[in-house]
Write a structure and sequence with these properties.
The structure holds 2 protein chains of 2 kinds. Chain A is an all-alpha fold. Chain A has a domain of 208 residues. In chain A, 74% of the residues lie in helices and 1% in strands. Chain A has a two-stranded antiparallel sheet with strand order 1-2. Chain A is globular and about 65 Å long. By secondary structure, chain B is mainly alpha-helical. Chain B is 68% helix and 4% strand. Chain B has a two-stranded antiparallel ribbon. In chain B, strands 3-4 form a two-stranded antiparallel ribbon. Classes of the chains: A mainly alpha, B mainly alpha. At the A-B interface, helix 16, helix 17 and helix 19 of A face strand 1, helix 5, helix 7 and strand 3 of B.
Chain lengths: 498, 568
């Protein structure tokens, strides 16, 4: 591999969002240290401003179709990367807005919190652009580093420490697996860049290497059987961090998974379809069934997140361009619903101090707005029309049915019903049961913004998805020439398809 | 107005619901009037499309098409044919009536009307969808409001209240809740309803996805699929694919209808629901099943329908008899009406199974007629419950002194439900019976028995509620006096009797929708469609008793001798 450093200034333009955000991060840090009396709340808005500018820059890139590769194909900026970067930045902005009130309760390190969040976002932005195994490893660890600290941010809270420790140990283990997998793959193929591996032969070493890489990415997205850290970590972590953790790293990891499976492993499609089908079925079923028994809403959303990942994996198992469109669309729907739901959880726990499902009794009487918002977010997660989640699920099923993954779709459909049960249990607490303490619940204004954005996203994507489908379809143009062997289960039928 | 009529019908309730979000609960009159005016727009426009529908031209009219997703091949494609038009009308009548029936709801009025409007609008949406995706979209959308309506404004089933534990239903929140089959709490009813219907809805969705995939047309457009999809003779799982799809679609949608083994969610749901919800639920929500089967299975898989529809003919007998007997023994007014509805839905299946012009038209008219009759019954059961807080028939009685208007209406409603000549139900019933006799004599005998059973349980309930000695506990009960309370009943009664006396337009409209359907399925061209025109003769015979059988006789296409014998 040749490593050319003769970059021009215009090449660096591709890195502009990351460079700008890094500088901004440093400014935030410096302001935090140099002006201890500077209100931390303003620091939050200051970081949001930086993120918004970066977002604007990426939007400009997207509109002008700026793309290219850097550092000998290590870093790629294509429209998919831009999509995921915008996605992650949007999630980060919403998370910071949702954190402000929560972070104000901290006695120490309030400024650093925002720095760490932005740092994690930066790492994930690199992840979405990772185009070879090395940059994958570096950016993945960079992103996770911030999270290790964030998860255990509540120093005096045992649950937070426990969650942080579990996350750290398993995270480091996953990193080890990833490094070992990369070494195996490199040893077998002599290649690091994804697109150059496509011609490799399926040797046992290569397969094991990829399995290890998949395991470590599976750890990031929290798919069964790599999910064991999820419930405790989600439960223990400060709720805004849980929010962040539940959406942004998953999206970044899916960006990598898409590149890995659809580019690097395109020729091995018959092999990995089975793997993905199995993981997807396990994740959906396990996540949904265990979620039924949860009493804590954060744990419930953690398990529901596992199940949602299973749903997204259906799209990956389809392994087509349409599958990748569906994944991105689904993640978009999931972003709004999930961040919205967690925002409601934060708002309620600010008022009550607990986040058991019982505490949602009579929320409709205490705060009709929060209850209504939560209702729509949960229904969107469950996949009820006319909300975004329904279109997302349908998109994924349509992508999968084109590939003939009937079993997977049947399991996915059954899981919709199972998930509806536990989402409705929360709805029951909110709407049907009477409150123990009928005092109204107030909402801070940044939190209101988050919830309004979540509602708007959930409803608009659900009712008029065309612009969003157009966006994801144009973002995955590079997969359109991916022609892998189809995994159709009932071959005689498909012959009649056209 | 004309071409956009369907949009007004569909979106007026949605707009009303949206508007209600911004109104405070402290202005209940404003809330009610917004809801009522939204429903009124729907009602007037549905009346317009019902009378403006050109039954000679037939086909899908008032068509609206908006592209919705290019990638998935989905368009918001709306249009009504002769089957959809009366059902849209029935939905908007019941919505309008339901808003007045629930006029006295005090608790969270705004939310109640929001969900009621969404429920009705979603139902209407199904009746006018010409796109499989939107059919499912609205279908599933109509299920969720039921959960909240039942849960928030419903009532626990009489006498079982002690079974819900007063501690706040903690135990029931976990797995035990599902397994707690004996529970009669409204939460149980609501959850059962939603899970049951969603579970079968996804079965239907699987069928729809298979149609989408194997048609290979990359569209959900029913009209395109109907013309171009070739799903026959694809081997799959030891049989052929079209049969699998048909079974998935049929049973997926039959659960809401509710066909016999899949009915158990329905009476519980009826019993727990508030009056207006029961009305919509029994009146139109259940018809979504029949309608969706006609729209999806009949239109897209006609040959398979001809082959497999005997399944429905067998199951409908159990529906009729089982529902009838349970209704006879039930002691809760709403259970009686609920089981009677599920029994009566068996007639619709019988009419659909016989697959000829008369019986299928009868089935469609029956759906319309049943919506009115059962709507009235539920409205009055709701009134009695509001006054006495009891639905327990043995403990009630003698209410005729306290509520003469209600009991008079109740008699009319019972007559309509039984299928007394003079109501539109009679026409529908006779058409189903006449039309099915050739093909399914056994089922027709069972249906006759069902009519006797209907008489028995409705009269038993009427006697139990309104006659006999009065329980002094209920001496405070009073009649429906104000216009607001009387209006919904009067509307439904006048519709039921009005179409009973002047059925010709309804009949023409329905025939125009049924004819192409049956022709596709049986590939037999109707004999009666000659140039003399059905409407002309119909007008010269205003007496309902002669008009319907004669029309039926005229239009009969199969060997007519059997049906003529059957009429007497």
């Amino acid at each position: 591999m040749t490593f050319s450093l003769n970059m021009t200034f215009s090449d660096l333009l591709l890195l502009l969002p990351e460079i700008f955000l890094t500088c901004w991060l440093c400014v935030v840090l410096i302001v935090d240290f140099s002006f201890p009396r500077f209100p931390k709340e303003r620091l939050a808005y200051f970081s949001v401003a930086g993120l918004v500018i970066t977002l604007g820059c990426l939007g400009w890139f997207d509109l002008n179709h700026i793309s290219g590769t850097l550092f000998g194909n290590m870093f790629v900026l294509d429209r998919m990367a831009i999509f995921f970067k915008i996605f992650i930045l949007g999630a980060t902005i919403l998370v910071i807005l949702a954190s402000i009130e929560y972070v104000n309760r901290f006695t120490l390190f309030r400024g650093e919190y925002y720095c760490l969040v932005v740092m994690a976002a930066l790492g994930m932005m690199f992840m979405t652009s990772a185009n070879d195994l090395l940059s994958l490893f570096v950016s993945l660890e960079f992103a996770t580093l911030g999270f290790y600290i964030l998860v255990s941010y509540l120093r005096d809270d045992l649950a937070s420490n426990e969650g942080g420790l579990k996350f750290f140990i398993l995270g480091v283990f996953a990193a080890g697996l990833l490094a070992y997998g990369i070494s195996l793959v490199y040893g077998e193929t002599g290649k690091l860049v994804f697109s150059e591996m496509a011609s490799a032969q399926a040797t046992p070493g290569l397969i094991i290497g990829f399995l290890l890489i998949f395991a470590s990415l599976g750890f990031k997205i929290g798919a069964v059987p790599f999910h064991s850290w999820i419930p405790d970590t989600y439960h223990g972590a400060p709720t805004p961090v849980t929010t962040f953790l539940s959406i942004a790293p998953k999206a970044a990891a899916f960006a990598i998974l898409l590149r890995l499976f659809l580019v690097a492993l395109a020729t091995f499609k018959p092999l990995w379809v089975t793997l993905l089908v199995a993981v997807s079925i396990l994740s959906m079923t396990y996540g949904n069934i265990v979620a039924i028994a949860q009493r804590n809403i954060k744990r419930l959303l953690a398990y529901s997140g596992i199940a949602q990942v299973g749903n997204v994996l259906i799209g990956l198992a389809a392994g087509t361009k349409m599958g990748s469109d569906a994944i991105m669309f689904y993640l978009l729907a999931y972003l709004f619903a999930n961040i919205g739901a967690f925002a409601v959880v934060i708002a309620v726990s600010q008022a009550i101090g607990r986040d058991e499902i019982e505490d949602y009794r009579g929320l409709n009487r205490r705060s009709p707005f929060l209850a209504f918002a939560m209702l729509l977010f949960l229904l969107s997660l469950a996949g009820v029309p006319p909300l975004a989640g329904f279109i997302g699920k349908l998109y994924i099923f349509v992508a999968a049915i084109h590939e003939g993954l009937y079993t997977l779709i049947a399991v996915g459909l059954i899981n919709i019903v199972i998930s509806m049960y536990y989402y409705l249990i929360i709805v029951k607490q909110m709407y049907i049961n009477e409150p123990v303490d009928p005092s109204p619940i107030g909402i801070s204004s940044p939190m209101k913004v988050v919830i309004y954005v979540g509602l708007a996203g959930t409803l608009v994507i659900g009712i008029y998805p065309q612009p969003f489908t157009d966006w994801v379809v144009s973002a995955t143009v590079m997969f359109s020439n991916v022609v892998g062997p189809s995994a159709t289960v009932i071959p005689p039928g498909s012959a009649l398809g056209g | 107005m004309g071409e956009y009529a369907l949009l007004y019908i569909l979106f007026a309730p949605f707009a009303g619901a949206l508007g209600l979000i911004f109104v405070s609960n402290r202005q209940p009159l404003l809330v009610r009037s917004i809801a009522a005016s939204a429903a009124f727009v729907s009602l007037i426009t549905s009346l317009y499309i019902f009378y403006a529908y050109d039954s000679i031209a037939g086909g899908f009219q008032f068509v609206q098409k908006f592209e919705w997703s290019r990638q998935l091949g989905i368009a918001l494609y709306l249009g009504v044919d002769g089957v959809g038009t009366p059902l849209v009308l029935a939905s908007s009548i019941l919505l309008f009536a339901g808003i007045f029936v629930s006029w006295h709801i005090k608790d969270r009025t705004k939310e109640f009307y929001i969900w009621l409007l969404i429920l009705a609008a979603a139902t209407i949406g199904v009746f006018m969808s010409l796109d499989l995706f939107f059919l499912y979209f609205f279908y599933e959308m109509s299920v969720i409001p039921m959960y909240l309506l039942l849960g928030m404004w419903g009532s626990h089933t009489k006498k079982y209240l002690e079974m819900t534990d007063p501690e706040g239903l903690k135990r029931r929140d976990s797995v035990g809740f599902i397994l707690n089959f004996g529970s009669n709490s409204k939460e149980y009813a609501a959850m059962k309803l939603v899970l049951f219907l969603s579970a079968f809805a996804v079965i239907a969705l699987m069928g729809i996805l298979l149609i989408y995939k194997y048609s290979g047309l990359n569209t959900f457009d029913i009209l395109v699929l109907r013309e171009q999809a070739n799903l026959m003779n694809i081997p799959a799982l030891g049989t052929t694919l079209d049969k699998i799809i048909w079974v998935l679609v049929f049973f997926g949608f039959a659960s809401i209808a509710p066909l016999w083994p899949l009915h158990s969610w329905s009476p519980v749901g009826h019993a727990a629901a508030p009056a207006a919800t029961s009305m919509l639920h029994a009146g139109v929500l259940m018809k979504l099943g029949h309608f969706s089967i006609m729209r999806v299975a009949f239109e897209i898989l006609p040959e398979t329908t001809r082959e497999l529809m005997p399944i429905a003919a067998v199951l409908c007998m159990f529906s009729i008899i089982y529902g009838g007997f349970v209704a006879f023994y039930a002691k809760d007014t709403k259970y009686v009406i609920g089981y009677s509805s599920s029994s009566h839905m068996g007639y619709v299946f019988l009419g659909m199974a016989a697959l000829n012009y008369i019986s299928l038209s009868g089935a469609v008219i029956y759906m319309f007629a049943h919506a009115m009759a059962t709507g009235m019954l539920f409205a009055m059961a709701g009134w009695v419950y509001d006054q006495t807080h009891s639905r327990d028939i043995p403990s009630l009685g003698g209410l005729v002194n306290k509520m003469p208007f209600i009991s008079a209406c109740f008699i009319v409603a019972c007559m309509a439900s039984v299928g007394m000549p003079g109501t539109v139900n009679f026409i529908a019933e006779i058409m189903i019976i006449v039309g099915s006799w050739n093909k399914y004599p056994l089922q027709v005998i069972v249906a006759m028995l069902g009519i006797v059973l209907t008489l028995a349980y409705l009269f038993k309930m009427m006697r139990g509620l309104f006659y006999g000695p009065m329980n002094q506990k209920y001496s405070h009960a009073h009649d429906a006096i104000s216009t607001v309370d009387r209006l919904p009943l009067l509307i439904m009664i006048s519709v039921s009797i009005g179409f009973g006396i002047f059925p010709m337009h309804l009949y023409d409209v329905v025939r125009s929708g049924v004819d192409p359907l049956v022709a596709r399925i049986t590939r037999v061209v109707p004999v009666a469609e000659t140039n003399e025109g059905l409407g002309v003769n119909g007008k010269s015979m205003p007496l309902e008793r002669t008009a319907a059988p004669l029309a039926a006789h005229k239009a009969i296409s199969d060997p007519p001798q059997g049906s003529r014998e059957e009429r007497e």
